[in-house]
Amino acid sequence: MSTKTAGKGSVLSRASGGLVLLIVGLGCGGMIAVAPDIAAAVLLLLLPGVVGWLLDPTPGKAIGRTMLLFQGAASIHPIVSIWFQCDGLDACVAMAADRRTVLVVLLAAGFGFVLTQILPMALKLLDDGRIRIRRARLVAERQKIVEEWELERSE
């Protein structure tokens, strides 16, 4: 019974993943049809994050998702500027390819990558420190009880 349930869950998750991909594809196609100049600029800004997401070997693509999230957040202001100020494909791509814009977007993606790499190590160090402090407290409490009750020390 449980194998059937697990099988259904994986089928449902695959189907919902395909549905999300379909909806995103339709949205991107609509964007390209309505405003190809802005779509080209957005593609230019988000391309490194998408490539990182596609090449991410980790389970769940955690590194790629974090990079894309940070890069997308850094791309909001340039995309809004492009939406309201550009006039034609050349102007839109030129605004998106501005050195400062590209640098900010790439630094945001790099920060997402570094954060994904360092955060697990930092949490492990914090957990190890917490365990060491707790162990020292328990050893001191045990020593106090041994002295109070005049028990033999068995370490």
In short:
The protein is mainly alpha-helical. The chain is about 90% helix and about 0% strand.
Order of helices and strands: HHHHH
**Kindly state the mean pLDDT as a whole number?**
87
From the N-terminal CA to the C-terminal CA, the straight-line distance is: 51 Å
- Percentage of residues in strands: under 5%
The number of distinct structural domains comes to 2
Total beta strand runs: 0
| Shape assignment | elongated
Q: Mind telling me the C-alpha Rg? A: 26 Å
Give the fraction of residues assigned to helices: over 70%
Largest sheet: none
Q: Are there runs of 5+ residues with pLDDT below 50, and where?
A: none
- Put simply, the count of helices is 5
Query: By helix and strand content, what is the structural category?
Result: mainly alpha
What is the topology?
Blueprint: H1 2-34, H2 36-55, H3 62-85, H4 89-96, H5 99-149
Helix pairs in contact: 1-2, 2-3, 2-4, 2-5, 3-5
